[in-house]
Amino acid sequence: MLVRTYILNKHLNNVELFLRGSNLYRGIRLTTAVVTPLVIMYILGYAEWAPSVVVGVFLNAPGDIPGSLKRKVNAILISIGLTMLVTCTILFFKPYLMLLLIAMAIISFVVSLISVYGFRASLVSFSGLLSMVLALAVQKESPQEIFNHIGLMGIGGLWYLFVSFTFQKLAPKKDNNQLLSDTLALIGEYLKLRARLLTKKNKRETLIKEALVLQTQINEKHETLREVLYVERKKSGRSHYDEKQLLIFISTINIFELIEAKHLDYNEIDRLFIDKREFLKASKNLNKVLGNHLIKLSDLLIQKRKIPNKNVLLDALAKANDAISDYVDDVTLPQAREGALVLKNLYDYQELLLEEVRAIRRVMANVREASKVSLKRQDASQFLTLQEYRLNVIIQNLSFSSNLFRHALRFTVAVMFAFVLGTVLEIHNTYWIVLTILVIMRPNYGLTKERSKDRIIGTLIGATVAISIVLLTQNVVVYATMAIVSLIFAFALIQENYKFAAALITINVIFVYSLINPDAFEVIQYRVTDTIIGAIIAIVANYLLWPSWEVNNLKDVLLDAVKKNTSYLLATKDLYHAKKQNQLAYKVARKDAFLAISNLNAAFQRLTQDPKSKQREFQLIYSLVTLNQTMVSATASIGSFIVNHKTTSASKEFDVMVFKIADTLEMSCAILEGKPTIKQSDAESIKEAEDVLLKTFQHLSHKRDKNIKRGNTEISTRDMHHLQEAYLIPNQLIWLKSLSENLKRATRKYIEAV
């Protein structure tokens, strides 16, 4: 009974989050923009103008995604101009088949290439291509009719821009709150996953692959939030609410770095706690408690309920602390020292996590003592990933080495084949086949296949629902209601669940057509058939025409990850030498390294979606991804310790080790670039530096053993930090050295094999 109640409450909570969230708000915004001109023009007696305005609304909505207002407005205005130009071209060339085919080929290729300017540009590109497809369905013959249609489309686009601006003013922080909520929820899930990694020895490989996906998703959210929060703050100053959102965002960054910093050497954990795993349970539980608490806080950003009690956090932290002394009592010193230091380092990191969670709690509770953001505008700009919009970006992509160039060619051939096939065979509504190709075809095979499957299943579900409703009722009011409701939820779900969005879009199309044409079954039949044909063409084209198998695209992403790894390591070295002066440079290098690893993770995920026969050297590539990921985490571990503790001065031996690791990483870069590798480090001096660093820990341990023998079992915070520093930093450096050498060997094998 309790389980059922829990499940029911969870479902109700998810429904409430959806109803209050920005996705449904976006669906209502677009539906308002579509329905309002239809109603007004019908009332005023200009119903024949309404479809053109509605087309303008639909075509220019895709570019309206979360981000800075300036970029959003620019994207919609460019989209309006592009869709008007494309529609005009297609309508004038439509009577002349050869000219129409040439125009379609040029538009398909050129407009597809706009995607090289980033995600927002890819949505503008989608609008342009969608306008080409819809123009094929429009029946306008005389120049006056065409120009009237184009003008009304432009009005529709401007109307949507006005509606979007109005909705944003009515709820200016809804998108930002949704982004922050999603980020907190993802980080909460990531923390819980890391808890399982601690003890689930047999499931680690599966869990690590899940972690790669979560890391990519978190980094994507962080990038969007940087644009939204930093750009808007830079332009309009800071309000109290903006300050709150930025504080929460900064805490999510800090939490994410702390999690990354504790990518533990699990082989070492297994060795130390091989028969003492019970002492890891308190740390594991604390991670779960922290993760669940973040998920609850993420819900509260949408629901505005009371903040949960913090006692559960404090109790879990106290138990983790008690586990350290229990371990020492059970194993006894000095044998327990290494295990105790591992638990202590883990505890310190979790204590810092708890402080960041409490900082988020204070901000959400409007506590006046919550800290202020002192980031300077020029400093904030360094955290933004700027998109280059010069013409040479397209010129640089005009080669078969460019994935987007090959996609543009592939898409153009698929569209032309589908249109010619439909024309020759006189297929009803050929443009639906082309539309299916446009919607599901992506630069990589795996995503195209996945979207094809979702599209077909969604279309079949939508058709089944529509048939059921048509059989049960022949009521026009029901058709109109279903068309509006399905439209709202389709756009609300299109980013979250494409399969259900496709089902709802199918329902919407069928009932809109049913209002015009009473034979709904004919519409359903053609819709399903054309969708299947379009999906098959898209999959076959992705497989056969200049395919972009991820194994061939990985080298550049891998090279960028290794370079950013090197920069991050060197920035950490500078931080150790002068914390205050180099903290900003360290944070920027950290951000760049995390993004580079996120891109590498995303590339690996795309690789797993390719056909098995195309996943050459899969295990080797997986090793390269995990080695890079582990190196970032090991560097983050050193950096996090330096930032959060009062440390001793960096030694020359520390620098020697860092330069050795950097040299090895640079050799990996040279191998990837096909350049000769130059060995720079002296093996003898490296071994000497390693010995000196390890002796520091041995010396402090020996000193501590003497104190214990004298009966001085208590240890000061300062001495404990020195002991932790002497243990953590040399061990992490030795681990990094080993990882960098493994990475160099794996890189050489990868280049030889691929």
TrEMBL record:
Where's it found, cell-wise?
A: Cell membrane
Pfam families (alphabetical) = FUSC-like, FUSC_2
Residue intervals passing through the bilayer = 39-61, 73-93, 99-116, 123-140, 146-167, 408-425, 459-492, 498-516, 528-546
Please state every residue range assigned to the domain named Integral membrane bound transporter.
418-540
- Where is it mainly found? membrane
**Topology versus the membrane, per the UniProt entry?**
Multi-pass membrane protein
**Matches recorded under InterPro entries:** Memb_transporter_dom, YccS_N
UniProt keyword annotation of Transmembrane present: yes
GO-annotated cellular components: plasma membrane
Q: What UniProt keywords are attached to this protein's entry?
A: Cell membrane, Membrane, Transmembrane, Transmembrane helix
Q: Which residues form the Integral membrane protein YccS N-terminal domain?
A: 77-329
- Stated family: Belongs to the YccS/YhfK family.
Q: What is this protein called?
A: Putative membrane protein YccC
Q: Which organism is it from?
A: Algibacter lectus
